[in-house]
Amino acid sequence: SEETYGGLVKRCVHLVSTHEQRLSFPLDSIRRSDGSYPTGSTEVIYPGVHSDLGGGYPPGEQGKAIGKTDGLLLSQIALHEMYAAAFDSGAPLKVPEDVLPTYLASNTWRKMPLELGKEFLIIPDLVNRFNAWRQVTLGLEMPKQPLSEEEAARFEPVRSAVALEQAMKNQLDWLTAWRINRYAGGTLLSTPFFHEAPNRDAKKAHYEQSQQAQEEKQQAVLKQRKAQRTAFALSGGRGEPPVLAPGVPDFDPEIAQKQLREAAAEFSRDYRGERRELHSTWQFALDDIMGPAIYVLNSDDDLMEYLQMKLAGEALVKRLFRPVPTGKIGQPESPESLLVALYDNQVHDSRAWFMYSSIGSREPWGGYFRYRVIYFGKICSRPLSLLTVAGNVVGAVLPTGNVLFNFKQKKVVNTMVDTLDKVSKTSATQLEVSAHDLSTRELIPMLPDAEQTKAFTHNVGEVTSQQRQFIEARRVQIGKENLKARWAGKTLERTPSGGPEK
């Protein structure tokens, strides 16, 4: 808030990836709970997933943005916006030497090295595809290229006609239309980006070679670190301790083509209403409950979101993939075909890759027919149930250091849901959660109002804050009771399972 920062924050620009769907990457908006934005702040939506904005993808990842430079990466546009916004607000950034005024030519620190300037390269194909995205999905006019110096100097993001959550839904509906054609329609297998996607570790022999090579690199690093420590010890510990050599990244096999194929199959099955093979019961163990809050999503909304996204995608797929008119060679591409090219060649599929090397599949409980969870201050776009907070199970009678959660799916019996089931050919389910002692596997005793405390709510910040205070007060109370018992010559202990009461 302005009161907290006292005007120290002059400008805040938040770039939002509209195509991110991983449950592990909810959106934390800068919009407040009351719907207002802080003074001097702007939230800008962009096509792509998390790293399409942050610059985490190298050229060629998943067969996209292939080239010798970064000029086709979607993150290049976000890079320019961040640079321009910071420079416009007075940040002392370097600039290309040819635009530096004569009276500042002596300030060599202002001059951007030529090699650094090349990092800002954007290839025209990317510009055209991005502008087509603006025209087709946002209804904005295609700007005439090149922009005049005056237009470029006063660039400001266009104010949206809808709220952030609706804008996010609109963007995922368009991407769903693309997936209906590419994933469910089977055209993925004939696209250039799919054939260019790295897949050399799909074969077991090459996989093992790559894994061995990664292990050898890590062993070399460990050897180097040992030598650094030894040299420092032999010097008698004089001077600063050495900065140890960095480790190698975790092993991540190159199987993008396989991952895309399996992701497309998952989408296709969900789109056609063919249930995925899911276990009815899952277990989640915590040896040491962390301080940050853990929430459970309300599965009641899943079927409605599925139908909404599916119907919206079906309504847009014919607009997106229009028949190519027979015309003269060299005829300009339509905005829709340019948008398809953006989805094909720039927008990555983070769900297809995420967690695959660890569990051999995609993120559990996630899917392509989910809108992204958004936090606005203390409220959330989807109702959540608080599971743990402040190192304790919510609703537990006594503080619990470790826990085993059981998650069980039950089919919902409801007239409206039954009707939707017939339309979607899917089963609506509800998630039941039970907390057990990790060592004894017995149910953890709960307070009488535990179910009310764990009720699904949009006001997650308020509930979490209340529970933190309650748990802390409960710990203090139990500590006082134990102390009084010790003074009285008694010791309060939890009775072990099957043992005599203490």
From TrEMBL:
Domain T6SS Phospholipase effector Tle1-like C-terminal as annotated: residue spans: 126-471
InterPro entries: Tle1-like_C (IPR054388), Tle1-like_cat (IPR018712)
Domain T6SS Phospholipase effector Tle1-like catalytic, chain residue ranges per copy: 8-83
Pfam families: T6SS_Tle1-like_C, T6SS_Tle1-like_cat
Lineage: superkingdom: Bacteria
Protein's recorded name: Uncharacterized protein
Organism: Photorhabdus temperata J3
